[in-house]
Amino acid sequence: MNALTLISFVFFTALVAFITWRMTRHDDHQHSTGFFLAGRSLTFPVIAGSLLMTNLSTEQMVGLNGAAFTDGLSVMAWEVVAVVALVAAALFFLPRFLKSGITTIPELLALRFDRTTQLIANVIFMVAYAVILLPSILYSGALGLIGLLDLHTLTGIESTQVLLVGTVIAVGVGGSIYALFGGLRSIAISDTLNGIGLLAGGMLIVYFGLNAVSDGQGVLAGWQELSAAHPEKMKSLGTEDQSVPFSTLFTGVLVLNMFYWCTNQQIIQRTFAAKTLAEGQKGVMLTGMLKLLGPLYLVIPGIIAYYLYADQGVKADAAYGRLVFDVLPAPLTGFFAAAMVGAILSSFNSALNSTTTLFSLDIYKARLNRDANDEQVVRVSKWAGWMMAAFAMAIAPLLSSQESLFIYLQKVSSIYYVPLFAVVLVGLLSRYVPAIAANLALVLGCTVIGLFSFVPFFNDLQQGLHEFHFITIVLVALVVMMLAFGKYVPRAQPWVQEDVKAIDMTPWTGAKYAGLGLLILVIGIYVSFI
Fold first, then answer.
1. How far apart are the C-alpha atoms of 233 and 230, rounded to whole Å?
2. Measured CA angle at 438 (ends 434, 439), to 5 deg
3. What single DSSP character describes residue 507?
4. Which of 406, 291, 296, 336 is nearest to 51 (CA)?
5. What single DSSP character describes residue 396?
6. Cβ–Cβ under 8 Å, residues 190 and 178
C-alpha cells in the first residue's frame, strides 16, 4: 500500500469519526431511550442510511460477490427479493411495532404472549448473534481488508492465520468502541456517512473493473465482453445446481428476507427509533430503492473477478478484495478501504448494540434487577457488550474452513430466522393463539431445522428437497400448529394491542404507491435478465 492509499484511508476514516462526534457529542448516552433508541429522533435519510449500512457489511460485499464468482447473476435474489420484504416491513410490520412503542422484538412477544416467550426469544437472538452473526462480520471484514489493503506486504506478516486473527481483534475493538460508547444515534450517523462512501466506491469498482475487462476500451465494451465470454453467468434465474434456484425465490429466499428485514432485531431497531411513523415508512421505502442498486456493486464485481481470475486459483471469497486492490487507483483504494472499514464497523456495532439492548432491557432489567435505574442498565449493557465482543473475536477465525461464507450464513441463520418470524407473524395476525403455542414453535422450530441441517441422519432424510423449500415447509407447519392452538385451545381473552402514543402514528400518504412502484421494478429487473 503506497503513501497515497494510506493517507486517503486515514483521512476518510478520521473525517467520519470527527463528523459523528460533532453531531452526537451532546446526545444523552446515560439513559435507555437516548442510548438504545436515539431518543426516537431519527428521520428517513438517517434510517435508510443506517438500514443499508447495517446490512451492507463485508459478509455482503465479500460473501455475495464470492457467491456471484461461483454462480453468476442469479445470486442477486438476495438483494432484489429483499425489496419485497422491505415493502411488507413498511406497510404491515412497522405500524404495529411503533404502535406498541417497543425497543426489542422480545418485548413485543412479552406483550403479545408472555414473559417466557420473551425469554426464549432473547436467548435465541443472543446465542445466534454471538455464535453466528458477530463472528461472521469480523471474519469477512478481516478477509476483505487483508486483500483490499494487501496487509501481507504492509505488515510483513506471511501467515494468513496470524494476520486474520490480528485484523479480527482490531476490527472488533474498534466496532465495540463505537457501539458501547456512542449509542444508537452515533451508529446511525456514522452508518449514513460511510454508506455514501461505500456506494460511491462500489460503483467505482464496477467502472474500473469493466474497464479492466475491456483493456481500457470503456464500460460498455467491458459489459459486452463479459456477457459474451460468460453468458451463463448473466442470467437472473438460477438453475437447480446453483445456490439460488429459481423455485427458491418463492420459498426460502423470500422467507429468510422476510425475517431479516421485518423481525430481525439488529435491523429493525433503527426503525424503532423513527421520529414518526411516516419518517419510518419513508426510510424503509428509500432503503428498498437503494437495494435495487445492490446487484451493481454486490454481484457484478464477482462476475468481473471470475473473468479476470478464474484460471488463477483464487478462492471465491477472496476474489473481491483482490479485484479492488488490482483495479482501483491508489488514492481511491484508501478511500474505499476506509468505507469498507466503516461497513464492517457498522454491521458489527449494530449487531453488538442490538445484543446488549436485548440483554440489558429484556434480561437484566426485566428479570435480574427490576429496580435498576437507567444509568445502571446502560452500564451493564456496556460490560455485557465487551464480553460478547471478546467471545465473537475468539470464534471468528474458525470460519476460515467454510467454502462459501455467504451460503453458510444463510444455512445456519435459518435455524433461528424461521421460528422467530413464524411467532411474530402469527402473534400480529391472530388475537387468540396462546403463549404455549408460541413457546413450542420457537423451541421445536430451532430444533428441527438444526437437526435436519447439521445431523447426518436427519440431513439424509431430506435428500432431493432443497433446504430452502424445507425451511418453508417448517414455517408453514409452525404457523398451522399455532393457529390450531388458537382455534382449539385459545387464550382466555383475545389480545388487544394498545397504542402507547410514543410517536405520531400518522402514516405516510405515499407509502402504498411507493411500495407498488418498488414491486414493479423488482419484476422488471428479473425480466430484463432472463
1. 6
2. 110
3. P
4. 291
5. G
6. yes
**pLDDT tens per residue, range 451-502:** 988 888 888 888 888 889 999 999 999 999 999 999 999 999 999 999 999 8
Domains of the chain plus CATH, in order, are 3-100+117-255+265-398+506-528 (1.20.1730.10)
- Residue from 185, 245, 252 nearest 37 by CA: 185
- DSSP-derived secondary structure letter, 132: I
Residue 333 reports pLDDT greater than 80: no
- The dihedral region occupied by 101, where left means phi > 0, alpha psi between -120 and 50, and beta the remainder, is left
With cell 455464535, the residue in question is: 131
Cα 163 to chain centroid, rounded:
25
Q: What span, in angstroms and rounded, lies between the C-alpha atoms of 12 and 14? A: 5
Instruction: Map grid coordinates 483482490 to a residue.
Output: 322
Provide the pLDDT for residue 495: 95
Q: Which residues pair with 504 in a beta bridge?
A: 276
With cell 446511525, the residue in question is: 188
Q: What nine digits make up the cell of 129? A: 448473534
Write the pLDDT tens digit of every residue in 189-221.
666 666 677 778 888 999 999 999 999 899 999
Of the candidates 403, 497, 356, the residue with the CA atom closest to the CA atom of residue 29: 356
End-to-end CA distance of the chain: 41
Residue partners of 83: CB distance under 8 A and separation at least 6: 288, 291, 292, 518, 519, 521, 522
Cell 418453508 maps to which residue?
A: 472
Determine the Cα–Cα distance for residues 192 and 346; give it in Å rounded to an integer: 10
160 vs 175: CA distance, rounded Å? 22
Q: What letter represents residue 89's amino acid? A: A
Cβ(353)–Cβ(136) below 8 Å: no
Residue 8 confidence class, pLDDT cut points 50, 70, 90: low
Length of the chain: 530
Q: By CB neighbour count within 10 A (0-12 exposed, 13-18 middle, 19+ buried), where does 208 fall? A: buried
HSE-up (13 A, CA, CB side) for residue 130: 18
